[in-house]
Write a structure and sequence with these properties.
It holds the Pfam family Beta-prop_DCAF4. Keywords: Repeat, WD repeat. With 269 residues, this protein is mainly beta. The protein has a domain of 142 residues: YVTN repeat-like/Quinoprotein amine dehydrogenase (Methylamine Dehydrogenase, Chain H, 7 Propeller), CATH 2.130.10.10. Helices cover 0% and strands 49% of the residues. It has no helices and 23 strands. It has a four-stranded antiparallel beta sheet with strand order 1-2-3-4, with no helix packed on it. Strands 5-6-7-8 form a four-stranded antiparallel beta sheet, with no helix packed on it. The radius of gyration is 18 Å and the shape is globular. It starts with 8 loop residues before the first strand and ends with a strand.
């Protein structure tokens, strides 16, 4: 049994030693926390919050791991993107034509990828100065519905994106073309994440119907559908994570599923 925290999270981006977190009970704030906060069960051993940034109307956030844009995080706002340097406090603003619901930084290039309510996906070179027009958009892709999640694959030649029509597409960033579609996902209005495990060759997503679906990355075939152990409802959509080695280096592949206050384990073979 896993007891839930008192405050719910709307977005959390993990880095090697820091976590960037948004909390539903304190809207308009992004907090920077040490990752060790989540690794200790003793409250006395937990360090406190490092810093908090007042940011209004935030839909998404992402931490940059690229050394060319070190110490920066981005927040997706209503019709704009805000990139903040946590050391200097310097901010860059990029105006957009739609709310930014999903974000991810590349690690090999200083690019920030954004998914919008309009269905557009675009990238920004964060070395640029503030611009109000659209000329700074390096790559532009389009879905027919609001984009709720984006995930760059490891080599960063491909990007996975999901939308509010339940479509999941794999885009080739070199040609700006969709090369695969993963069918069966269910979504109409929720911001739901994608989970990519390239080591096992799997894509995992939880639908608005509370079913967890696992696809083959290679051929887009639906491998497994797992119903929620709880009755399906919009406030009980499971949160999942897939690991190739649950429990450490000698662990075996498996899926962890959290629903309300319960934690479940599903073996994978």
């Amino acid at each position: 049994m896993l007891h839930s925290r008192e405050k719910s999270l709307f977005s959390l981006t993990h880095v090697s030693k820091l976590c960037l977190m948004g909390i539903a009970e304190t809207p308009g704030c992004a907090s920077l926390l040490p990752a060790s906060l989540f690794s200790s069960t003793n409250p006395g051993d937990r360090p406190g919050m490092l810093c908090s940034f007042k940011i209004s109307t935030a839909w998404s956030c992402a931490w940059c791991l690229n050394p060319q844009a070190d110490n920066c995080f981005s927040t997706g706002l209503t019709r704009r993107v805000l990139v903040t340097n946590v050391v200097t406090g310097h901010r860059q603003t990029f105006g957009t034509s739609s709310d930014v619901l999903a974000q991810q930084f590349a690690t090999q290039t200083p690019m920030l990828y954004n998914g919008c309510r309009s269905g557009e996906i675009f990238s920004i070179d964060v070395r640029q100065r503030n611009r109000k027009g659209q000329s700074w958009k390096a790559i532009r892709l389009f879905h027919d519905s609001a984009v709720t999640s984006i995930r760059l694959l490891e080599a960063e030649h491909y990007l996975m994106a999901a939308d509010m029509a339940g479509k999941i597409k794999l885009w080739d960033l070199r040609t700006a073309k969709c090369v695969k579609q993963y069918k069966g996902h269910h979504n109409e209005y929720a911001v739901l994440p994608l989970h990519v495990n390239e080591e096992e060759g799997l894509l995992t997503a939880v639908g608005q119907d509370c079913y967890t679906r696992i696809w083959s990355l290679q051929d887009a075939h639906l491998l497994r559908t797992i119903p929620s152990p709880h009755p399906a409802s919009k406030d009980a959509i499971p949160s999942v994570v897939f690991s190739s080695r649950l429990g450490g280096r000698r662990g075996v592949p498996g899926l962890l599923m959290a629903v309300k206050q319960d934690l479940y384990h599903f073996s994978y073979n």
